[in-house]
Structure formats: structure tokens, C-alpha cells
Amino acid sequence: MNLFSAIHYLLFLAIVTALVKPLGGYMERVFSAKNTALDRLCRPFERLIYRISAVDPNVEMTGKEYATCFVLFGLVGTLLLYGILRVQQFLPWFFPQYHTTPLSPQLALNTALSFSTTTTWQAYAGENTMSYFSQMVGLCAQNFLAGAAGLAVGVAFIRGLARQLSGTLGNFWVDLTRALLWILLPGALLGALLLVWQGVPMNLHHYAIASTVEGARQVIPQGPVAALEIIKNLGTNGGGFFNANGAHPYENPTPLTNLIEMLAIVLLPAALTNTFGRMVGQPRQGWLFYCVMVFLFSCGLIFADHFEQKGNPHLVGVDFRNGSLQSGGNMEGKEVRFGIAGSTLTAVVTSNTATGSTNSAHDSYTSLGGMVLLVNMLLGELVFGGLGTGLYSMVMTAAIAVFLAGLMVGRTPEYLGKKIGPAENKMIMLYALAAPLFVLPLTAIAVSTRAGLSGLTTNTGSHGLTEILFAYSSCFANNGQSFAGLSANTPFYNLTTALAMMAGRFALAIPALAFAACFARQRNTPSSSGTLPTHSFLFGVLLTACLITMVALSYLPALALGPILERLLSQI
User: How many domains does one find in the chain?
Assistant: First the structure.
């Protein structure tokens, strides 16, 4: 790692760390209905929304009711978006001479599920497929709504851990509304203005036609790019207005916009750890989670940077050293204006969160560099993660660590002063087993059937396996990134990736809410000399070891046949 890269990474982490406490405190005030600076502006709109939707903000929901509203809200959003995509050619701002990629029924369904689950898996080229109406009213709206719904679930989960002798977790519609009005809309407005200032387009102009120096005809897409770009990152959604995603100069024109967009992805999930500590009355618990996240994030960043800077071992006799005349390392698939540092930072940020925004071609990374991104997703979307999902993924893993520690000393495991009994353990196991039970079988089906193998257009063997495993891991993590060598716009992949997206969204949120509901019904018990302190350095080590062990036990054979084997074969 060179000095420039180190400064770049340290600056990013320093900004995030400095903003964790103020943002975390702000979100705690928002969801606890305390006074904030935006109340005078937002509360009239909040009351209007409740009046129109006939929502009583004083009525709270049980865990089952909250989960039902969350699932139904996602399914209704999917149906509405599917309808828009199927008739977009009859709606405004559709240019038939440029929007030439047809939206088949299964592709439209896949895309609708993708955006309503914050996955934003894109088996299409944005500028050649989506009209301005579809981008703004369909995709952009779902980025707001799905992101706010995820944040609402995360807050309800925290509320369940914080309460005692309570049968409710809050009101889904109130949490959703406050997430939109107080957090996502103001953040998106500020971020969009910063992007427009840096040159990101925000217009409804017709596509521009230009002639190159050679006399060739070039089509330059236009559109409301800034509006979609900021919320796709702030709402941890991902996806791109253009097929090239964040590598396109209209989406991400400068290193400053790259930094702004990466901060937009990480800030809210990172600050939610502080919100958690405040709401449960133990701030050190939140800081422990944040420190574990930063440690795992830094490890991934260091390893990815090392492997990319080291270069491609297939190329013999090439000078990969960084110097004044060359960037060095593996620059294949990376933008020169970002270099290895900016590309690696983006890749690690987005693979650790539920955000499929990219500014480089991950399929062109070295085998072990690409494996770092894959492992980040296999960790379970808990290193920062998505809005809400990262926090409850970390807590559920912490509960596993507490349970293991309890077994070792022969005590009933406790967390936050509440016992982890049979009901809680069932939810923990459902949560922990969901990912391998979906990702690995779907990968096995894809590599053993003609329909699955037909998607490997450029690579086979170990790299082909990595491409397929990466796709299903990305969809289950509601991430949306992919290796470009996999052609995913087929009926097989449109349907199987949609299944993985729904499982990653709902099969994790429902057990998490059930776990929180079980905790909410308990009474806090005072700590004693035998209570395991879950805010100590020792517990942080136990939690980290538990995370790594769980991933290794579940996925090491698949990784050995994929990126690890590819690396070994390259040295023969």
C-alpha cells in the first residue's frame, strides 16, 4: 500500500468516525419522537400523510404485525414497479430510438423485486432500457421507500431489545414516514446538490447526438442522474442510471464525487450503531459494534489493496510497481481518474454494504482481490451493511457469540440483561442458516444445469464458479453487484436471483423481528459477577472470531473451488 492510498483510506474512516455520534444521536431523537431541528418543516407533512393514509401514530404493533406490514409493503411496491416497467413505452419520456432493450416479463419482475428489496440487481443497460419516467417514478421512488422500510425494521429491532415487559415494537408506518421525511429526503436533497455542483446532470433533455473526430455518430444519454445517484447510495440500494454505473463520468465525474458517494453509503449504517447504544441505554455496546465493523472493513481494504497493487500473476515480465510515471498494479477494469485506491475503496465499501454501486469492473480484479469482495458479502451484510440490516445482523451474530460463551461456562446466555432461551435460539438459528441454505443450493443448481452454465459467456472453470457464487451471494445480501462475465438476463437467472433477493430481504428480517419481540417481552435482570460483559475488548475478539468461523464453516469449500483454486492455477 502506497502513501497516497493509506491517506485516502484513513481520511475516509476519520470522516465516518467523526460523524457516527452526531448522526446516531439525531436518528435516536427522530425515532424516539424527540425534538429535532427539522420538526417545524417535517411535522406538517407527517400529519398530512397520517390523515391521508388513515394511520393512527399512537397505535403500536406486535412483532408479527410489524413483519406483516413490512412484507406487504415490499410486495405492493414490487407490483406497482412491475406495472410501470411493463407499460413504460406508453408513458412520458420514452425514446424508442434509444431505449432498444426490451423488458421481458421475467426481466421486469426481476427488476421490480430487485429495487423493492434494495438489491438493485441490474440485468439490463440503464440508458438503453429505462425511460426517464421509469427511472424517477419507478426506480428512484423505490430506492426511497425500500431504504426507509429497511431502516424502520432496524429501528423496531433496536426498540425490541431496549424495551421490557412490552408486546409491541412500534408502528411500521410511523417509522417508515419518519425515516423518509427526517432522514432520507433531507440527505438526498443535500447530496444531490453537491453532485450537481460537481457536474452530475439533472435534466429531462433528449439524448444528445455528437460527431467524433473520426466522423462517427455518438449518442450521449442525458437524464435526472443526480436524483437517482444520491438515493441509490444513501438508501444503500445501488444500481446505476447508466450501464457503467459509477464508472460513468455522468454518475461519478470526480474523485470528490466518489468520496461523497461512498460516505453516503456508509454514514447512516455506521451511525446506527450509536443509535443502538443510545436506545438500549448502553453506548459502549454501540461503539463495540462499530469497532468490530471498522476492524473487518480495514482488513478487507488492506487485503484488496495489496492484491490489486501486486498485479495479475498471469502477466510475466510486467513492472507492477507504483511510480511517478505509472499507477502500477492491476489497472484492468479500473478508471484512471480513481486509480487503485479509489476503485478499491469503492469496491470494499459497496461489498460490505447492501449497495451495488461500483466504479470498476470487479470481474477484472485479481482472483484474491475479487475473493475479498465475495467474502465481504458472505459475512452477512453486517460490516456497516444496509439501512437497519447491518445492525441487526451484527446483533444476531453477537447473540450466537453469547450463546457459545454461555455453553463454555455452563450458564444460561444473557444479552443486554435478558436471557437467550429456546424461542430466541430458534430465531437465531433460522437467521444464521438462511444464507447458506439459499446461496449454496442455488449455486449448485446453476453449475450443474445447462441453463445455469449457459450464462458463463466468457469464463468457465474456477472463475466461472466464482462468477455464479458471487451472483447469488450478491442477490441474497441485497447488494446487486455482479461479475460481468455472467450473462444474467435469462429466464433461469432472472427467476433464481429473484428468489435469492426475496430470501435475503424477508427470510432475515422476519426472524430478527421475532427475536426482538421475544426480548421485548422479558424483564431486564441485573448483571452479576458471572455476567459476560458484551461491551469489552474480549467480547469483541470473540465476536470477530465467531464471524470468521461461521463464514469459513459455511463457504470455505466453495471458496477453495473458486477464487483460491484460480489463484493456485495461475502460479503453475
Answer: 1
